[in-house]
Amino acid sequence: MSTGIRATQISATQEFRNYEVDPLVRREARIVRLMLLVLALITAPVVSTVAADPPGNTSEGRLEHAVEIPTPEGLLHRVRFTYAFPHRDSVYVEDFGTITASGTLAQLTAKRQITIRASPDGPVLANIPIANAIQFMGGDQFEMPQESAFPESQHHGMWANKAPFVQTATMEVLPSRFPNGCLPYLSGERQAIRTAYCNVPFADKRITIQVALLLTCPVESPPPFQFSARFCARQRRSHSGWRDRLEPESEVAVQAFIADFMTAIGAAGKHDKPPLPAPQVLPAPKAAKEHE
Amino acid sequence: MSKRGAQFALGGLFLAFLVAHVVCFSVAYLMGAIDVEDLSNMTVRILAIYSVPLGVVLGGVFGGTSLPTDRGEFGVLCFALVLSTLWNLLLVVRSVVFVISEGSPHAIAELFSYFDTLTAASTFLIGGALAYYSAK
After folding, report:
1. ipTM at complex level
2. A112, A116, A201, A204: which could join A288 in a potential S-S bond, CB 3.0 to 4.6 Å?
3. Which chain B positions have a beta carbon within 8 Å of A204's beta carbon?
4. Does the model's pTM come out above 0.80?
């Protein structure tokens, strides 16, 4: 039985060896191999570029990171991107205004892409899609008051610096005082920047005070021009919820914070004057010390 | 023990734990952890929770004008007191945890959410005993 099987296997092997491939088929196989090689040579650089760069990054604009922030108003993204247009003096970023031709921007946006134009009505220079956004689980809830929540009372300042107001405020003044992010947008006839609530330095650890800012200025206006700032403050004790009514010592701290901010942005608005350093922690109020 | 004595024992137990809650909230206020409005709201809400068992007990005390009646053995009363203590401990321990916790903006809402859930689910612990000692 096993001898019979063995004889059949030998016979099949010899038949395979004696099989001669048609020369036409061999030539076709060679052509197919060559085509595959050419295809691989063409696609290799494309594949490596796609793998190295997130989608949408161009030589002019590069998204450094994007973080998804779910809010009651909808999904926001905290983005940071760099851009460079070497042959231009300035560019226009939608919702942001006219800015320098190269630099870095960090902001909140409700859009799915950053559009950079030559001018407000000019052609699109670059579109940077917001892709591969990170989602953080947990952490403090992000809260940004609506524009209607801000009180009518406002502070005013003059901007005489040639540097773009929104860019300077967003990149130099706001990050140290409002680190939770700011949302630039057009509000009617004015350019607006609305920040998320951020903590006000306060020595009494049982009380948390937060302030949000609404900064507005004329759209695309050459300096000097007047800008205005509105602040929305709230406080809570360690086990309580948020309340808009401030206690006297909290109000003092908020007023000091606002004065410090207005000094800083006023200094930045002067020609070639750097912004002031970040605010210091205020001393504990007397009442709180006695209470402790 | 007489029926009236059992009613006083149960009523006293619930009152003592109610006072313990109010003391916890007052400590939180004195520590600066809550506002005075929170203290008022929390006191009112805990009174609302205790109004049910205390209402039944007090109803039995003031409604039962007949002479004291013997309501079983001392062991039955002890069992009723143990169940009532257990119910109260489930509530008061959470109040103590509230006071010593680090706190959050939702701490008060979470505390009373726990109270509402617990009281709805654990009425069986005290329902029988209160009905037994409050019935005429």
Report:
1. 0.78
2. A204
3. 32
4. no
